[in-house]
Sequence to fold (143 residues):
Amino acid sequence: MPDMREVSIFLLLALANFPSLAEIYKWTDANGKVHYSDKGVGNGAPIRIQKSVAEDQEAKTKLQQFRNQLESKKLIDEKQAEEAQKLASERETKCRQIRDRLQGFEEFGQIVQVKDGERQYLDHHQKDTEMAEMKQFLKDNCE
Fold:
């Protein structure tokens, strides 16, 4: 047999689920301010606070749509972040390659390029032009 404490808790929970039988009154004062109370005052009229089942379903639908939009935005943001990370990684790789090549140009007097499987030696003017282009690329993209 349940003890008195369990019965009290059960009754409290059961009563908490019943809608309130008290009426709520709404009235507007002389300054135009709207008031709510459990007692009617002046031009106060009773109002019903509970929402209908249809309104609750509409709210649930709107909430679910909002959650879907948030999830969609989150997925888009994650994809954009991944793409940005990939581009940053590719740019860093390209910068490292250009730095290495520029260092090679600066360390060696004679520069060799391999085109179509054949070695081609650059003259001083070609070497200076290539180095200037690499330095400009590093300045624009890697600093």
Observations:
- The beta strands are 24-28, 34-37, 45-47, 111-115, 118-122.
